[in-house]
Specification:
Distance between the termini: 41 Å
Helix content: 25-40%
Bound molecules: zinc ion
Strand content: 5-15%
Number of strands: 11
Number of helices: 14
Structural class: alpha+beta
Mean pLDDT: 81
Shape: globular
Length: 372
C-alpha cells in the first residue's frame, strides 16, 4: 500500500432520502457495510461509548462524570494497572467480528492481544491488556494478532444485504414496500416530494451519530425482529453479547451472560496470575464519595469537608441513610445514569420526608448535565 493510499480515510456510501421542501433527512438506503456498523453499536461496552463520544456534542446522562472519575483516580485504588484500562477501554465481547467492519469506531477491536513471554513452555496464554501476569509466572507482553483474517469477512448481516434505515434507527428490509411504509408514516403521499442525495460516511460522521437511548432501543428492537436469513452470526450474539468471564464482577447485582469463551485468556485483574477469574477492579478496603451526577472521589477528610462545602446546606439538614443495591436498584441506577441525574432518580421511590429534604440538597449541588 502506497503512503498516499494509507492516508485515504475509509468511507461508506449512503443514499439519503430528503424532503424537498423541509430539507430534512427522511430515511436512508444502505448496504451491508453501513448496517454492520449500526449493529456494532449494540455490542459496544458502555465505557467505549462514553470514550469515543466524549469530545463530540451531546453526552450520555452523567456517564461522562463517572468515566472522568475513573481516569482521575490514582493507580493505587485498583488491583492492577490493567483494572483501570479495562474500565476505560473495555473489550468488546465480539471484537473479532467487529474487526471486519469497514468503519470501526472502537479502536480496541483491532484483533491484537498480548501473549505470554514464556513461548516455549507456556501453552499460548494471552491477555487483551499488556503486562498481565501469567499463571506460569511469565508476563503477557508479546503483541500479536489474536485471530486470522477470513478471505471474505462478513460481520453481522450477510453481504449484498440492502436496508432502509429510518431517522430514528429502525432497520427495515430494503424494498419498495418498506419505503412506502416509512414515507406514509411521515405523512408523504407523493414520491415526487422526495429527493435522493448520495453521501460518503466516514468515522467523523459516525461519531456525530450519538443517537440517544430511544434510537438505540429502536435499533435493538428491529434486530430482534430481523429475519434470521439476513444474519451472518447468531442473533443472540448481537443483542445479548454478554461479558467475557475474565472481565465480569463477582457479586454484581446485574447478572450479565457470559460472552463467547476465548480459550487461554488470562484475567488481567489478578495480581498473582491466579487462574480463577479474579472478579473485582478496586483494591480494598477503600471508601469513596459518589455525587448525584456520578462523580467518584476517594473518601478522605479533606475531600469530605470540600464536598460538604460544595453542598452549601446547613449541616442540620444532612442525614445518613443506608441503601442496599440489589438487581432492582442496580437497574434503576443504570437507567438513571443514561438519561439525567443518577442517585436522585434511582432512590427517590424510597423517599420520605427525610429524603425530600436531601433531594433539595442534590438539586443545589448538581452540575449542568447533557441530554440523552
Ligand atoms: Zn505463561
Amino acid at each position: 500500500m502506497s503512503p498516499e493510499e494509507k492516508n485515504i480515510k475509509p468511507t461508506i456510501p449512503l443514499k439519503l432520502l430528503v424532503d424537498k421542501k423541509k430539507t430534512r433527512v427522511l430515511a436512508a438506503e444502505a448496504t451491508s457495510d453501513f448496517v454492520n456498523v449500526l449493529l456494532s453499536f449494540l455490542t459496544l461496552p458502555l465505557g467505549t461509548v462514553v470514550r469515543v463520544t466524549k469530545n463530540h456534542p451531546g453526552s450520555i446522562g452523567c456517564m461522562n462524570n463517572l468515566y472522568q472519575s475513573i481516569e482521575q483516580l490514582s493507580a493505587d485504588n485498583f488491583c492492577t494497572k490493567a483494572c483501570q484500562s479495562i474500565l476505560l477501554s473495555p473489550r468488546n465481547p465480539i471484537a473479532l467480528v467487529c474487526k471486519n467492519l469497514k468503519l470501526n469506531i472502537d479502536d480496541t477491536s483491532n484483533g491484537k492481544c498480548f501473549y505470554c513471554s514464556n513461548k516455549y513452555y507456556c501453552s499460548g496464554r494471552k491477555s487483551h491488556y499488556p503486562n498481565t501476569k501469567c499463571t506460569c509466572g511469565g508476563i503477557a507482553d508479546r503483541e500479536m494478532s489474536e485471530g486470522s483474517q477470513p478471505s471474505d469477512p462478513e460481520c453481522f448481516v450477510k453481504r449484498r444485504t440492502m436496508c432502509v434505515i429510518t431517522d430514528d434507527l429502525q432497520v427495515l428490509p430494503g424494498n419498495p414496500i418498506s419505503l412506502v411504509k416509512v414515507l406514509c408514516n411521515l405523512g408523504f403521499s407523493d414520491v415526487d416530494q422526495v429527493e435522493e442525495l448520495s453521501v460518503d460516511v466516514g468515522l467523523d460522521e459516525l461519531l456525530d451519530l450519538n443517537s440517544g437511548v430511544v434510537c438505540v432501543d429502536n435499533l435493538y428492537r428491529t434486530v430482534e425482529s430481523l429475519d434470521l436469513e439476513w444474519l451472518a452470526i447468531s442473533k443472540n450474539e448481537i443483542i445479548n453479547a454478554g461479558v467475557l468471564k475474565q472481565y465480569k464482577c463477582k457479586n454484581h447485582p446485574l447478572q450479565f451472560p457470559d460472552a463467547k469463551t476465548i480459550s487461554n485468556l488470562l484475567d488481567p485483574r489478578s495480581p498473582t496470575g491466579c487462574d480463577d477469574c479474579f472478579g473485582r477492579f478496586m483494591e480494598g478496603p477503600h471508601l469513596f464519595v459518589v455525587s448525584d451526577n456520578l462523580i467518584v472521589t476517594p473518601l478522605s477528610s479533606p475531600s469530605s469537608i470540600s464536598f460538604l462545602k460544595e453542598l452549601n446546606v446547613p449541616l442540620n439538614d444532612i442525614e445518613e441513610k443506608e441503601e442496599t443495591i440489589r438487581e432492582t436498584e442496580a437497574l434503576a441506577l443504570l437507567k438513571a445514569s443514561l438519561t439525567s441525574s443518577a442517585l436522585n432518580n434511582c432512590f427517590k421511590s424510597s423517599g420520605n420526608q427525610k429524603f425530600n429534604k436531601r433531594n433539595k440538597i442534590s438539586k443545589i449541588q448538581n452540575l449542568p448535565r447533557g441530554g440523552t
